[in-house]
Each structure stands twice: as C-alpha cells, then as structure tokens.
Amino acid sequence: MDSNDYSIADTTRRYFYSATKGDTLNGIEISVGSKAELEKAIKAGKVYSYREHVIRFYFPNKEQA
C-alpha cells in the first residue's frame, strides 16, 4: 500500500489565537472551535495573531485482506 490507497474520511478544524505580541512570542493561545468564534474575537479586537489547525483522517480505499 502507499498513500494513493487512502481517501480522506473526515476533516476537522480548530482555531487558535493570541491576544498580544507577547502572548504570540510566549506560545500563549486561546482555542476556539469554529471560524465564526474566531471572526467574533477578531471583530472585538481580541486577536493579535491566529492559526488554523486542520486534521484530516484517512482510511484505506478498500480493506486490505
């Protein structure tokens, strides 16, 4: 088997943001579960920087015997 024998079964996302430059440099982050929550924090002026963590789950295209 190689990577071509797998398909994406599910994708999840998690968003993390830091409120200040100091928090960013020290690795202090706040986690939110949706882009809408992140957008709300951005509009409220709470976000200095942010990142998106994407997790993809892969399963074999066919079960191998």
Describe the structure.
The chain has 65 residues and is α+β, with helices and mostly antiparallel strands. It contains two helices and three strands; from the N terminus they run E-H-E-H-E. A three-stranded antiparallel beta sheet has the order 2-1-3. The radius of gyration is 17 Å and the shape is elongated. The mean pLDDT is 93.
Short précis:
With 65 residues, the protein is of the alpha+beta class. The chain is built from 2 helices and 3 strands; from the N terminus they run E-H-E-H-E.
Strand element count: 3
Biggest β-sheet, characterized?
A: 3 strands, antiparallel
What's the helix-strand series? EHEHE
Strand arrangement across the biggest beta sheet: 2-1-3
What level of helicity do the residues show? 10-25%
Integer-rounded radius of gyration: 17 Å
What is the overall shape?
A: elongated
> What percent of residues are in strands?
35-45%
Global mean pLDDT: 93
The secondary-structure class comes to alpha+beta
Gap between N and C termini: 12 Å
Instruction: Flag low-confidence runs.
Output: none
